[in-house]
Design a protein that fits this description.
Elements lengths: L1 H7 L9 H5 L13 E9 L6 H9 L4 E10 L5 H11 L3 E6 L10 H6 L7 E6 L8 H12 L10
Parallel strand pairs: 1-2, 1-4, 2-3
Length: 157
């Protein structure tokens, strides 16, 4: 697996700086003053030690108008309590709790289908254990627009 990962690294590119994407020649991209709309879906299960930091970092994203759908996937710790407190402080945060998975479903797949689709918004599925730089979502969406991509996968460094 390590050799396969190293082999495929040759196709991995770093996300360009946001300034480079907004000034690049080619199809018209959103200007820095025109914020990208994005719906961020986060699956959380028993993440009381990390959820607050993760959510706060996501809500601090620059260059993007984001809404955050956090699906509490049957947590048995204080994850739900922490999320409810955060949602009281920020209207962009929407919560849903999954009590029981439908037959044949696995945990992380369910949250991706649980959040409502928003018109003209780009979707972004995020794991609880990754912290992003404050402009990563805007950079990923701008890159997708520039390259005409329907799907961009980012991986932590």
């Amino acid at each position: 697996m390590t050799l396969a990962a190293l082999w495929h690294l040759r196709w991995v590119r770093r996300l360009p700086a946001l300034e480079a994407l907004t000034t690049a020649p080619g199809p018209a991209l959103s200007s820095p003053s025109e914020r990208v709309r994005c719906s961020v879906v986060i699956a959380a299960r028993d993440e009381e030690t990390r959820i607050e930091g993760t959510v706060r970092r996501l809500m601090a994203q620059r260059g993007v108008e984001a809404e955050f759908f956090i699906v509490d996937d049957r947590s048995t710790d204080r994850t739900g309590e922490i999320l409810r407190q955060l949602a009281k402080d920020d209207a962009r945060l929407k919560l849903k709790r999954v009590e029981v998975l439908p037959d044949g479903w696995l945990g992380k797949c369910m949250p991706a289908t649980s959040a409502p689709a928003r018109p003209r918004a780009t979707g972004f599925f995020h794991g609880c254990r990754c912290w992003l730089k404050p402009d990563v979502i805007a950079r990923a969406v701008q890159l997708a627009e520039r390259d005409g991509a329907d799907h961009v996968v980012i991986s932590p460094g």
